[in-house]
Amino acid sequence: MQSFTKNIKTNWKNIIDDFFKNKENFEKELNDLYSHKIIYPPKTEIFNCFNFFNIEETKVVIIGQDPYHNPEEAMGLAFSVRKNIRTPSSLRNIFKELKNDLNIERNNNDLTDWAMQGILLLNAYLTVEENLPLSHSKIGWLDFTKYIIRKLDDVNKDVIYIIMGNFTKSFKKEIKNSKYIIETVHPSGLSANRGFFGSKIFSKCNLYLQQLGKKIDW
Q1: What pLDDT shows up at residue 7?
Q2: For residue 108, which of 85, 90, 74, 89 has the smallest C-alpha distance?
Q3: What is the pLDDT of residue 81?
């Protein structure tokens, strides 16, 4: 898997390489998929969320499901698209809640600034075929994501986890040490009105950050 992780400059690289050490078939399958189909994000951005800080510097984890499956959207950061791309509905609802909760008006769809502050924007599945949501849910990504959360929880018990939707609740059992878990429904257009709006996930997260002597500029 080192052909996919060679550009990672943080100590996440060693952790990721350890997971894939005996999984040559996974790398072969990924290479085959990228050779024969249109897959998102680009190869160089699969592990983009791990590029901004070392594991011990992680402040917050926001868990998504799988990358956006439309052209030019996925960039290896859960929920994020580049600033010139139309805002997807889930991200638009996240920004609505940010405005309602903290009165912060955000117009930049690129969440790289969040990642640079120690927010791990982690999708459960790190790749997807064009126009086929959840198409890579069976190729082994779920084991990888659970491994990442277990490793993070072992190294850093002061991480805040924001879990949105029934699917991501399955990751709670991997968190043994951290007591900072915020749960809400998914921000998608189908479910945001069922409890995501008004969830105040940002002010709750800020309260935990304050207790830990940390800060995020949302």
Answers
A1: 86
A2: 85
A3: 97
Catalytic residue (choose from 17, 18, 66, 158): 66
Contacts of 64 (CB under 8 A, 6+ apart): 78, 79, 121, 122, 123, 124, 164, 168
| pLDDT of res. 136 | 95
- The two beta strands, 160-164 and 60-64, are parallel
* Tally of CB atoms within 10 A around 181: 16
Q: Is 66 a catalytic residue?
A: yes
Question: Partners of 161 in the beta sheet?
Answer: 61, 181
Which residues on neighbouring strands pair with residue 201, listed in sequence order?
none
- Which residue type does 127 have? T
Beta pairing partners, 61: 120, 161
β strands within the chain, DSSP E: 39-40, 60-64, 119-123, 128-129, 160-164, 181-184
Q: What is the mean pLDDT of each run of 10 residues along the chain (218 residues)?
A: 84 95 88 95 96 98 94 96 93 97 96 98 96 93 96 97 89 95 92 93 98 97
